[in-house]
Amino acid sequence: MVLLMDQQTDTETKFEKLVLPELEIMYRTAWLYTRSKSEAEDLVQETLLKAYKALDRFDGRYPRAWLLTIMRNTNINRARKKKPDLLDDPEKTFERSQEFSDTQTPETIVVDPLFSAEVTEAYETLPENFRNVIDLVDLNSFSYKETAAKLGVPVGTVMSRLHRARKQIREVLKEKQVEDTISQGGDHID
Q1: Are 74 and 47 in contact (CB under 8 A)?
Q2: Which of 102, 117, 137 is the last residue of a domain?
Q3: What distance in Å separates the CA atoms of residue 183 and residue 170, rounded to the nearest whole number?
Q4: DSSP secondary-structure letter at 178?
Q5: Rounded Cα distance, 190 and 170, in Å
Q6: Per-residue pLDDT tens for 163-175?
Q7: Do 106 and 98 form a contact (C-beta atoms < 8 A)?
Q8: By residue range, what is the domain housing residue 63?
Q9: For 56, which DSSP code?
Q10: pLDDT digits (tens, 9 = 90+) for 114-163
């Protein structure tokens, strides 16, 4: 009985030390995956539950990468479970998803006033894998290593995608002759 209580206390201590400091990043990442506050909260909760159950098998190194990997896999599994519903009636599913989506997100509150419409438009023309890297590295301050772990790609791929994404944004802005306006205002993409 005492041994069981000691194991539970060790697990709780390990959880508080390794997992709880990563909550903010987990919420931001979950929101990037889901683009919905309630869905992000559900994803984080499910991730925390899985992490707690697996904590005794975790070696303690790189807790952020470990947690974000659990979150990524959980999100993929959740998407797989939802997929058959999309095949039934995509338009109805889309309408339902719009009913529950948050209209005022932290991103719209912070990013929209800071970036011109042209920058946003240039960003939206990027392929999804480029946008994901820009989201994590430039907008959420993840390191290259953390971004690589989260996306499941090598660090070199993150660096390459980031370089190409920034270059593509600069080219679009140059075509619109917005680059000079941005550099004069002090904001720059690099």
Answers
A1: yes
A2: 102
A3: 11
A4: -
A5: 9
A6: 999 999 888 878 8
A7: no
A8: 1-102
A9: G
A10: 456 777 788 888 999 999 998 899 888 889 999 999 999 999 999 999 99
Pair (3, 84) in one structural domain: yes
Q: Are residues 73 and 31 in the same domain?
A: yes
- Rounded Cα distance between 74 and 117, Å, is 34
Q: How many domains does the chain have?
A: 2
179 in the same domain as 110: yes
Check whether residue 11 and residue 96 sit in a common domain: yes
Q: How far apart are CA 127 and CA 97, in angstroms?
A: 23
Helices 63-88 and 90-100, interaxial angle, to 10°?
Answer: 130
Question: Which alpha helices (DSSP H) does 1-116 contain, by range?
Answer: 2-18, 23-34, 37-54, 63-88, 90-100, 106-114
Nearest residue to 41 via CA among 51, 53, 30: 30
Which of 69, 102, 135 is the C-terminal boundary of a domain? 102
Cβ-count burial of 104 within 10 angstroms (0-12 exposed, 13-18 middle, 19+ buried)?
exposed
